[in-house]
Design brief:
alpha+beta; seven-stranded mixed β-sheet; four-stranded antiparallel β-sheet; 15 strands
Length: 340
């Protein structure tokens, strides 16, 4: 049974570990980008040559490049509006053996022959709204026209400073998430799943109890997500919970609520409460939870069924009275002779 708890704890930790790995990976990528930018800007500019332009897939991005063009002309499509605010001006740089598209936030003097900036892949909108129309008007350009673009003026260093800070934050968050999740998985006696079992007694009593449950589990009946044995109701998948059938006093359903606008989602919770204050919550589709609800009512037919404000207030303020009413119903059921 300890294996079942450990397996459930590991499964519950996996999503957090995955998120942590993604955060650390993103931080590493950001760090590499910042390092590449710093290295490029600290060295001499890379000269754009015909051989570089002839490459089908140049090693992009190049953050510090310089181009000496023989001629420049503005494209017929002068501007592209992005997000309703940014306007870019596009030009074609003509070399002896190639061409290159260049963008600039401000209009440039086409009599100028030398520009510096960053050589990066084109955005999809640039491919469709700028690059493709230029090729349609000048089909002879196709063999000499790479799908790269020179951002005149380069990329602002402040952007990379921000990227570095964000990468550091995500990296630290990811590492903390991984460390906490793995530590909690390794210290199962400190995990909430195990601490919830402390209502049954000391560690020795809990371990003895778990051995008894393990012996009953193979012959138990699986409902939706719950398994019902002769004496226990067990939840053991990505979540772990355990409840003695004789202790169940309240069973009810609850609609699981989404995090956006508090809207309900297509999942249902079935909740069982025992006389010791423990709570067992199964979550799933309506069909699975219908099976679990039926299994719980069969396991504890004396329990109060359904959620209401009255039941909640009685449980919170007069728990002894709530339990006494359940015990009275159970006693009455045991004295009622079975119907033939």
């Amino acid at each position: 049974m300890i294996k079942l708890i450990r397996r459930a704890i590991v499964r519950s930790a996996l999503p957090r570990v995955i998120v942590g790995i993604v955060c650390v990976s993103g931080a590493l990528l950001a760090t590499q980008s910042v390092r590449a930018f710093r290295t490029a800007t600290a060295s001499a500019p890379v000269e754009i040559t015909a051989s570089l332009l002839a490459q089908v897939s140049p090693p992009l991005p190049l953050y510090n490049v310089r181009a000496h063009a023989r001629r420049v002309f503005a494209t017929e499509i002068m501007t592209v509006v992005a997000n309703g605010s940014t306007v870019n001006h596009y030009y074609v740089l003509i070399f002896d053996d190639g061409l290159l598209l260049m963008s600039s936030e401000d209009p440039i003097d086409t009599a100028q022959r030398t520009w510096s900036g960053s050589l990066v892949p084109m955005e999809p909108v640039e491919l469709s709204d700028v690059y493709a129309p230029v090729l349609r008007g000048n089909p002879e350009f196709e063999t000499r026209f790479p799908r790269a673009i020179l951002r005149a003026g380069g990329l602002a260093s402040e952007n990379f400073d921000t990227l570095g800070v964000v990468g550091l934050i995500f990296g630290v968050y990811g590492l903390v998430l991984i460390l906490i999740s793995t530590w909690r998985a390794s210290q199962f006696k400190l995990h909430p799943y195990y601490r919830a079992l402390k209502r049954f007694g000391s560690d020795a009593e809990v371990l003895t109890l778990l051995e008894q449950v393990e012996a009953e589990l193979p012959s138990g009946k699986r409902a939706g997500r719950l398994t019902v044995t002769d004496n226990w109701v067990v939840l053991a998948d990505s979540v772990f919970g355990l409840m003695r059938k004789d202790d169940i006093v309240w069973i009810y359903e609850a609609r699981e609520r989404g995090i956006v606008y508090a809207t309900t989602v297509g999942r249902v919770q079935v909740i069982a409460v025992d006389r010791l204050g423990g709570k067992l919550t199964a979550k799933g589709s309506k069909s699975l939870m219908f099976e679990d609800m039926s299994a719980l009512q069969d396991a504890a037919p004396w329990a109060t069924v359904g959620f209401s404000t009255t039941n909640r207030m009685l449980w919170e303020s007069q728990r002894d009275t709530f339990i006494a009413r359940v015990d009275a119903r159970r006693a009455a059921r045991s004295q009622t002779p079975p119907q033939s």
